[in-house]
Amino acid sequence: VGGMVIFVAYEGFELIANAAEDVRDPAYTLPRAYYVCVIFVILLYVLVAIITVGSVSEATISSAKDYALAAAAQPALGHVGFIMVSVSALLATFSAINATIYGNARLGFAIAKDGEMPELFERKVWSRPLAGVLLTTGLSLLLANLVDLQAIAIMGSAGFLVIFAAVNAAAFRLSSTVKARRVITGLATLSCVAALVALLGNTYETNPTALWVFAAMMTGSLLFELAYPRMVSRPIRNLLLHRHRAAHQ
Questions:
Q1: What per-residue string of b and e applies to 44-64 under the rule 16 or more CB within 10 Å gives b?
Q2: What phi, psi does 129 have (nearest 5°)?
Q3: Is the dihedral of CA 30, 33, 35, 38 positive or negative?
Q4: 103, 80 in Cβ contact below 8 A?
Q5: Residue 186 lies inside a defined structural domain of this protein
Q6: What is the pLDDT at residue 232?
Q7: Total count of domains within the chain
Q8: How far apart are the C-alpha atoms of 233 and 225, rounded to whole Å?
Q9: Quick check: is 12 in a domain?
Q10: What domain range includes position 203?
Q11: 56 in a domain, yes or no?
């Protein structure tokens, strides 16, 4: 459980890569952005944990687990501190939602440029892929109103694990092309698969409905991937292979 909590706490860094086309020098900037963000978040989490444990008792933290940070601020700052931390948590949530929507919209834009999604997602409004933003927002609102929160959390974690496993497996296979270390990508793939199996097994015992919803979403995605090339005449380009060939010409 602790390992899964840590995994969830570090979800989101992959969204940095989705902004690559908006960065002037991604080869220089993105690696440094990853290192700086990860190190900063590690320090922040450690400091928050130390302050929280040092401010209130374990019993208080357990009883106020949904708002533990706000409860930790109350002894030193009073009710004002409780409100400040609560408002900060809401703002942080809004920021995370905004980053996720933007990142997914950029991802749809990049996939559409490779011909794997409709051309609509390539069009920009105010220099932004508006179609991807609207679709992501609409689907998010639909899920939030039709599926319970626990199922959404499980689907999100399982979806991340599937994506991470697929990306690391691809990097393992194309290690010479993308200059990745096979040991790291191989271990990452196995770790993601193991975590996914553990998560799905626990979900089957505690919330089987969420498992069926996740299976339906994965099946729908697979059917779309198989059907879309046959529905349209757009060529699906292998952008990575194209760049690799161009670099060696």
A1: eeeeeeeebeebbeeebbeee
A2: -75, 80
A3: negative
A4: no
A5: yes
A6: 66
A7: 1
A8: 14
A9: no
A10: 149-249
A11: no
